[in-house]
Design a protein that fits this description.
Helix content: 25-40%
Strand content: 25-35%
Number of strands: 8
Largest sheet: 8 strands, mixed
Shape: elongated
Oligomer: single chain
Distance between the termini: 88 Å
């Protein structure tokens, strides 16, 4: 084999080894869950509710999970810890499921899944102004939400802010699995508050 060809083979081997060693770590995907809860309202599901117009801050409206550094303007966008579905799509599903599990007299569903909304009695709109996680601090969700009837008349408008301690770091890194579990609990508590208001409107 000519010397020139030998050097070519060595160069290709070195590049291949570097490429193999620099492969990106696999991404981890997370989803909001619906915690178990005892149903406390009504004997049967009778009130149809549509969950629509759920918005989240642009800073977290991305595939990657975002955490904030406490007492700092710095945030970390994790490339390898991601939502399996964007929050804008996942939240209406989680909220409707939480409401159904909590209140037997409510049949809630995301509006995008409803082919026919003529039987909808109430429409819920939610604007999350904060969906924030501080490392070594607190998880905070804060949302303005309204309940309207099927004619579009607003029956109630409220703002709810809920917090929880951020789970401890794991191996010096944010514990994303525990963070998402805690976020899910806060979303569930918001869902229960909305369900209570709707139940009292009946």
């Amino acid at each position: 084999m000519k010397v020139k060809n030998i050097f070519l083979v060595i160069a290709i081997s070195v590049l291949s080894a570097c490429s193999f060693n620099n492969k990106s770590a696999p991404s981890r995907f997370y989803t909001l869950t619906t915690p178990s809860v005892n149903q406390v309202r009504g004997p049967a599901k009778s009130t149809n509710v549509a969950i629509e117009n759920v918005s989240v801050p642009q800073s977290v409206d991305r595939p990657q999970i975002v955490v904030k550094h406490i007492d700092s303007n710095m945030v970390t966008v994790s490339e390898f810890d991601r939502w399996v579905e964007g929050l804008g799509g996942a939240l209406p599903v989680a909220i409707s499921e939480n409401m159904n599990m909590y209140a037997r007299n409510i049949n809630a569903r995301p509006k995008r899944f409803a082919a026919d909304n003529t039987n909808t009695k109430y429409i819920v709109s939610i604007d999350f102004v904060r969906f924030e996680t501080e490392i070594d601090g607190q998880i905070t969700i804060s949302a303005w939400w309204t309940v309207a009837n099927n004619r579009g008349e607003i029956l109630t408008q409220k703002k709810t802010t809920l917090t929880a301690n951020t789970p401890d770091n794991e191996y010096g890194e944010p514990n994303y699995d525990a963070i998402v579990a805690e976020q899910s609990k806060l979303v569930a508590r918001l869902s229960y508050k909305i369900a209570d208001v709707i139940s009292d409107l009946k």
